[in-house]
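Fig. S4 source data, part A: sequence.
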Amino acid sequence: MANPVLVEVLRGNVVESRHRGAVVVFDADGKAVLEIGDTARPVFPRSAVKAIQALPLIESGGADRFGLTEKELALACASHSGESAHVELARGMLRKAGLDETALECGAHWPSNQQVALALARTGASPASLHNNCSGKHAGFLCTCRHLGIDHRGYVAPGHEMQEMVREAMENVTGAAHAADVCGTDGCSIPTYAVPLASLARGFARMATGSGLGPERAKAARRLLAACMTEPFHVAGTDRFNTQLMEKTASRIFVKTGAEGVYCAAVPELGLGIAIKCDDGAGRASEVMVAAVLSRLLAKDAALSATLDFLSRPMLKNWRGIEVGVLRPAGPLATIAFPAS
C-alpha cells in the first residue's frame, strides 16, 4: 500500500516537491480516531518515544532519590540542542548519581544549535558526550542504574538490565512486541525497535490518560509528560519546533520528534495519542503533518487552531530573505475534520 501525498512544497505557485506519509490518532479506549496511509507498517520511532523510555527512571524511585527536578525529567525525555543549559543540566544529573560524563555511552557530536556549535569550535574544543542530544536520556539511564545498584557499564547494550526495563516499558505501553528480529541500533547506541505506527499512537494515548497501564506506571507517565509540557525548552531548545509547539499551546499538548520523519504526540485533555511518519524521512514535512493534525484536533479553540495552522504552512526563504515558496498540508491531510472538541 502506497502512502498518500500529505505535504506539498511550492516554489512560487508551482508544486516542486511532495512528501508521502502516514498519520494515526488513537483514543484512550484503543479506538482509531483517524488513520491515513499504512499505519500497520512497522517504523523505528527513534527519539520520539523517549518519554516511554524514561518510565523506569520514575518507577524505580531513582528520580525521587536523586531529587530530579521537572527540568531534569524533561531533559531525560529530550533531544536537546546542546546549549549550555542542556549540557549543565545533564552534568548535574550525573553528579547527583555520583558520576561524570565519562560514564555516558551515547557518543559525542556537535551541538545541533549552529551558534552554539560555532562558539564551541572557536574555542578550539571538540564536542563531548554531554553535547549529544541524548545525554539527558542517558543520564536518566545512569541514575536508574545507580539507584538500583546495577553495574552501569555497558548499559546501552541489548540484554543489559537497563535496556530490558526499557523494552518492557515499551511493550507494555504500546502493546507491540519488541523482539530481536525487529531490533536495530539507534544513533545513541541503545536498541530501537520497529513497531506499527498505530501502536505508537495507542501508546501515547495511554501515556496521556493512564488507560490500560498499572497505577504506578500511569502516575509516572503523567509526571513525565507534565514535566515536558512545563519545560519545553529542555525537551529541544531555542527555536526548535517541539519547543515552539508546546510553548504556543501552553502545556496542553506533548510533542516529540524522532529521526527520519517520525513524530509522536499526546493531547491529554482529549485523551488522544498521535503518531506520524514521513516516508522519505524529511523533518520539514513531519513538522507540517503534526501541526496540521493538532490544528484540526483543537479546532474548538479558534485562536490556538489558527496558530497551529500557521505553523503547518511555513514560508520558504532564500539566502537574501526573500519569500520564495511555502510548505502546506495536502491530500487527505488537508481535508481532515474531527468533531468539535
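Fig. S4 source data, part B ends here. The chain has one domain: 5-335.
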